[in-house]
Design goal:
The protein is α+β, with helices and mostly antiparallel strands and 431 residues long. 54% of the residues lie in helices and 19% in strands.
């Protein structure tokens, strides 16, 4: 077929659609909503997956995270009940054995965490006090936003210095920079060296100990001090009096991060660490988290989520396609005499098929364009008003528009073939 003939068919198809504007618009609505749902759902799904994967990546693909877990009341040994001191969690023995027996481990960074009230004059906040090593920011993938982290010298000298997170800075120093100022904890004062970004939320379970704050949300206030400073001031047994209650816990380390040299060996090293800890801790007062395993699980969840969302959007397009077929069949019946005249003037069956297919594709294509525009607007609106992360991939609008055109062709073939197979004599007699 010549380009001139094709162009004439497109013009005729456009005029035919324009003659029935309202009907054409209502027919295209099914495609519009189907395409919009494809683009919007893919953007929302990608956004949710991206946010989850970014939080997991911040934990470090080469890291293995060990956490102490407070056992339930019926799991602790009898001597703990008699002494009124609960002893659980990671020990120096565990850390030493991991360093000495697990191959490929480059560094092990333990930390201790307790809960206390922080004070700046009349302002106070309930926070986690983390005893950490100077390498803590690199191991946790957390950026310094102001000032600096404490040094090896300050760690060895056991100096009363600290680093606070964004949440603590906002609550205790709402009107001024906290760097260089002091924070009071009980009777101790710590000089603020810098501000570190909030820790990403970690979904690693629910049975952590009362003092284990490593898996909290971004709203958790944190004060990070040198590990040896915390040991000097609190010892290895923590006593707390709050609201008439008394707690005494002996925990050597609340958590530890193990970094493996080879990212491909992380899973096997994690299995070896689980086996080692299982021998040392019959009460299972620990938890092993492997971010790379969580990342792979998140990727699998993303694929399932995309399939589900795609199926829902496909149903919308199917409904739109059925609507197009219904209208085109009605159009064939209405234009029976026109078809008979065209056949009598020499039009071939392929010409009739092409004419109706062009009209169907134009109808579906117009709905696809409107649907893409609407689908791009929905994620932007959701991100703006609901604060939900959405990610629009470059291929999503193209895919959605292509599906709309394919839908038009698929559901337009039968009406076009039915029109082409009409008997010209019978068509001319049609009133």
């Amino acid at each position: 077929m010549s380009p001139q003939h094709m162009w004439r068919s497109i013009v005729l198809g456009s005029k035919s659609i324009w003659l029935h504007k309202l009907r054409s618009m209502l027919t295209a609505l099914g495609v519009v909503f189907g395409v919009a749902s494809v683009v919007a759902m893919l953007a929302i799904g990608e956004g949710a997956s991206h946010e989850a994967q970014e939080q997991i990546r911040k934990l470090g693909s080469q890291n293995i995270i060990l956490e102490s877990v407070k056992p339930s009341d019926n799991q602790g040994p009898a001597q703990q009940t008699r002494s009124m001191v609960i002893e659980y969690g990671l020990t120096t023995r565990d850390i030493d054995q991991i360093r000495q027996t697990i191959p490929g481990v480059s560094v092990v960074v333990p930390s201790r965490i307790i809960s206390e009230y922080l004070w700046n004059e009349s302002l106070n906040v309930d926070a986690s006090i983390v005893g950490a090593l100077p390498i803590y920011p690199q191991m946790r993938n957390r950026r310094m936003l102001a000032g600096r982290f404490f040094s090896e010298l300050e760690q060895k000298e056991r100096l009363p210095v600290c680093v606070i997170n964004q949440t603590t800075a906002a609550r205790l120093f709402p009107l001024a920079s906290p760097v260089g100022k002091s924070i009071r904890v009980r009777g101790f004062y710590y000089r603020v060296l810098g501000i570190i970004e909030d820790e990403s939320q970690r979904s690693t379970g629910e049975n952590s100990g009362s003092n284990n704050k490593s898996s909290n949300s971004n709203s958790l206030a944190q004060l990070i001090i040198p590990f040896y400073t915390l040991m000097d001031q609190y010892g290895d047994t923590f006593f707390r009096f709050r609201s008439g209650s008394f707690e005494a816990e002996k925990v050597e380390f609340h958590d530890a991060i193990v970094r493996v040299n080879d990212v491909n060996a992380v899973v096997t090293r994690a299995d070896a660490i689980r086996h080692l800890l299982a021998r040392n801790h019959p009460n299972e007062d620990y938890r092993v988290t492997v971010p790379i395993e969580l990342l792979r699980q998140a990727e699998r969840t993303k694929r399932i989520f995309s399939i589900v969302l795609g199926s829902i959007a496909a149903i919308s397009l199917l409904v739109g396609g059925i609507g197009i077929m219904n209208i085109m069949l009605a159009s064939v019946t209405e234009r029976t005499r026109e078809i008979g005249i065209r056949r009598a003037l020499g039009a071939r069956q392929t010409d009739i098929v092409l004419q109706f297919l062009i009209e169907t594709v134009l109808l579906a294509g117009a709905g696809g364009v409107i649907g893409v525009i609407l689908g791009l607007g929905i994620p932007i609106a959701i991100s703006h008003f609901a604060g939900v992360t959405t990610v629009i991939k470059a291929w999503a609008p193209t895919l959605a528009f292509s599906i709309s055109v394919i839908t038009g062709i698929a559901f337009g073939i039968y009406p076009a073939m039915r029109a082409a197979k009409m008997n010209p004599v019978e068509a001319l007699r049609h009133e």
